[in-house]
Write a structure and sequence with these properties.
alpha+beta; three-stranded antiparallel β-sheet; about 25% strand; globular; binds zinc ion
Length: about 170
């Protein structure tokens, strides 16, 4: 297994619409294992393939941060089919280190997801898991959480991010 480098804000691969995963292969098993390891090493709840420079509709989530294997979720060509309620809380992203902003998300979401064997399942997430589903599915649509802030907040933050990206300085 290998920890991959996480690409940061300003990298064009984070803004691209990703492609659907096709037939499952041993290489994809390896990629998923690497993505879980990378998320864990970076202390993130989830990681989407574009964040390691691979534009595939693929993401991993582990709300237990490595504590409980049963909480590992692999999203393959996922799609949100229903949402309910709302939650307001801080959100961050491994591709935008040191930045956390309060963002509204649905409290509960239903996701249509493909399994590696090609069959489909519907998975439901609430609270942190619902937020993670929204955040990771945004990534594979080429959206970052800061793109969802109000225009004023976004503009202020963009100036800060541009400075960080130019200096390649992502320390907090
Ligand atoms: Zn993220």
């Amino acid at each position: 297994m290998a920890v991959h480098e996480v690409v940061t804000w300003g990298d064009p691969r984070l803004k691209k619409d990703s492609e659907d995963v096709g037939a499952w292969t041993p290489e994809l098993d390896q990629l998923v294992a690497d993505m879980f390891e990378t998320a864990l090493a970076e202390e993130g709840v989830g990681l989407a393939a574009p964040q390691i420079g691979i534009n595939l509709n693929l993401a991993v989530i582990d709300c237990s941060c490595g504590e409980d294997p049963a909480q590992k979720i692999v999203l393959i060509n996922p799609e949100i089919v229903r949402e309910e309620g709302q939650q307001v809380g801080p959100e961050g992203c491994l591709s935008i280190p040191g930045i956390r902003e309060v963002l509204e998300r649905p409290m509960k979401v239903w996701v249509k997801n493909r399994r590696p064997d090609g069959s489909w399942e519907e998975i439901v997430g609430e609270e942190l898991l619902a937020r993670a589903f929204c955040h990771e599915i945004d990534h594979i649509d080429g959206l970052l959480f800061v793109d969802r802030l109000t225009p004023l907040k976004r503009d202020l933050l963009k100036r800060k991010l541009k400075k960080k990206a130019r200096a390649d300085d992502w320390e907090e």
